[in-house]
Structure to design on (178 residues):
């Protein structure tokens, strides 16, 4: 097997990330969305009424970025900002009917970009890629991967329940189940 240099791996990883963002951005733009807006829309579809701070935390971006994107989505008529019933200083973000009806188009754009990116990869290869990327992400963020958390729990508890939970997680990951 040919030796692969670390620099070549990082260059390929960065190129693939850039190309995948570009492919998704082109598909989203066809529906009037800019890159990054889909993440907020999908997060609100999962849980409507989040604060900008909650959205920023869940998406791993800075609050000013979320605030700017919310402003654009609001101008486009996809979201609305409402004062919190509990704290007038706090605002909650909600999808409008227009925003709710756009979710299907966003999901379709994401699926098309996924299909393009993963063409020719079988389920096992996608699983391996996911596991490797999860490890890289954990290395870069200083966190543990779900597999490492499961291993720690199994060792710490030393019980069959921990081993069963880890085995279920691995089996669920392999089948794509949550």
């Amino acid at each position: 097997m040919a030796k692969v240099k670390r620099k070549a791996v990082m260059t390929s990883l960065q190129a693939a990330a850039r190309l995948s963002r570009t492919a998704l951005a082109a598909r989203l733009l066809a529906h009037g969305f800019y890159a990054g807006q889909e993440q907020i829309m999908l997060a609100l579809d999962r849980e409507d009424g989040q604060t900008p701070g909650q959205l920023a935390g869940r998406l791993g971006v800075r609050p000013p970025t979320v605030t700017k994107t919310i402003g654009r989505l609001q101008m486009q008529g996809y979201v609305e900002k409402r004062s919190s019933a509990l704290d007038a200083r706090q605002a909650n973000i909600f999808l409008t009917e227009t925003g709710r009806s756009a979710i299907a188009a966003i999901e379709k754009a994401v699926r098309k970009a996924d299909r393009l990116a993963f063409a020719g990869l079988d389920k096992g290869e996608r699983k391996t890629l996911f596991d490797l990327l999860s490890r890289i992400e954990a290395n870069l963020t200083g966190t543990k991967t779900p597999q490492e958390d499961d291993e720690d729990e199994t060792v710490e508890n030393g019980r069959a329940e921990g081993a069963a939970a880890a085995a279920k997680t691995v089996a669920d990951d392999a089948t794509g189940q949550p």
Summary: DSSP finds eight helices and two strands in the chain.
